[in-house]
Structures are given as structure tokens and as C-alpha cells.
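seq as requested:
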Amino acid sequence: TQNLSNTVWALATCTVLDLPLFASISAASIQMIDECSPQDLGNTAWAFASVGIRDLPLMQALSSAAVRRISEFEAQGLSNTSWSLATIAVADEPLFEAMVAAALSRITAFGAQELSNTAWSLATLEYLYLP
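C-alpha cells:
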């Protein structure tokens, strides 16, 4: 799973937009989603968002897996994941509820970049958190 997320991250970093390859990585990632670490989940979401691919089945699988593992995410992972989903307009309410609660519980671990990315994501999706 780390190999898949590293590959798709590298493709996005180099702005290589090979749709069949991204589709193959998506299909393989969905099948292995429960083996992904929080960093793998965040990097995969970031890669697809960075090249503008809105793969809803993959994002739904990533979101479900992220909710189950939300306590394992670090500040950067929460921030990058929220930015990724907002960038491609995927407003998964259960995930955003979990991410906001997790972020609030460890807000002191967030740097300026993580705070601004998370705030931008919530504003972009017009997400309102009501504890």
C-alpha cells in the first residue's frame, strides 16, 4: 500500500497525468484500503486532488478508512486530507466531523500551514461544525 501511495504521490509531484495509470492505482488502492496507514490515505488523496482527478469511489473508500483511523492522523495528515477533499469538492460529512473533532483535540500540534489549510478546506466546503 505504501508503494501505491508513493507512486501516485510521485506522479502528482511530477505532474504526470496518466489517467489509465491513476485508474489502476485507484482500483488497487480500494482493494487494499484497510492496509493503508494514515499517511498513505492522506498522500493518495493529495495526489489525486493535486492533478484534479475526482475519483469518488476512491475518495469514499479513503474517507471511510480515515474515519476508522482518525486517532492515528497527525496534524499534517489531517490538514492535507481536508485540503485534498475540498480541492476536488468531496464533502464527506462523517470524515469532516471526525477530522474537526480530532483537530480540536490537538490544536496545539497544528502549525500555521496546517491551521490555514484546514480552515480553507472547511470554508471552501461551507462546513459548519456544531459540537
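The chain has a mean pLDDT of 94.
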